[in-house]
Specification:
Elements (H helix, E strand, L loop, with lengths): L1 H28 L20 H5 L7 H24 L6 E5 L5 E5 H13 L4 E10 L4 E9 L5 H19 L7 E7 L9
Parallel strand pairs: 4-5
Antiparallel strand pairs: 1-2, 3-4
């Protein structure tokens, strides 16, 4: 959850910066008067003069440095794209069948069974579950919305003893770590007479 928010904030900041720079260059190109500190003075001014373009031509280190910097930027952009597009949800879990063979269990099926077990738990108003990790070592992220009268420690103990244990035993997993976030259902204050 937190990584997605950071990703969206960074993307928004980069977008706003590029929009401001592009809009200002477009405005100057269309005839707006730039401030005195602006590097370009009008619509007929070029972005790079001939002297600026040829200044480093004779330096042997210039072009390899530019190409290396651009290659690093491209690799970082590709890494970011693959990290963003990579599915966060575990598609399937490898289950040991006990006879030396393995079977694949759909991740969404395990999530839905855990969600149904959690929904039956007393005091849980709403639940969201996400199966993460690897096929051989899955983990659970759970968000439980509790009724106002429920003790969080009791709800967590019930979730661990019922839904989490049932999922771990039915999938024959040695362990099933869980990150559980608890929050309370919003409600109006009760009037006391």
């Amino acid at each position: 959850m937190r990584g997605g928010a950071v990703n969206r904030v960074l993307l928004a900041l980069v977008g706003l910066l590029l929009l401001a720079l592009g809009g200002s260059v477009l405005a100057v190109g269309l005839g707006a008067r730039p401030p005195h500190w602006w590097p370009h003075s009008g619509p007929h001014d070029v972005l790079l003069s001939r002297a600026e373009r040829t200044h480093w031509r004779d330096a042997g280190w210039w072009w390899p440095t530019v190409i290396a910097a651009l290659a690093v930027l491209v690799l970082l952009a590709l890494w970011w794209l693959t990290a963003t597009l990579r599915p966060r949800r575990l598609a399937e879990v490898r289950v040991d069948t006990g006879d030396g063979d393995t079977a694949l269990l759909r991740g969404r099926a395990l999530e839905s069974v855990m969600a149904m077990d959690t929904a039956r738990q007393q005091g849980v108003a709403h639940t969201e579950l996400l199966l993460t990790g690897r096929r051989t070592t899955p983990a659970v992220r759970a968000w439980l919305q509790l009724e106002p009268h429920v003790d969080p420690a009791t709800a967590l103990a019930d979730f661990t003893a019922q839904a989490l244990t049932h999922a771990r035993e039915s999938a024959n997993l040695p362990s099933l770590p869980a990150d559980v976030r608890l929050r309370e259902v919003r409600h109006r204050a009760e009037r006391v007479t």
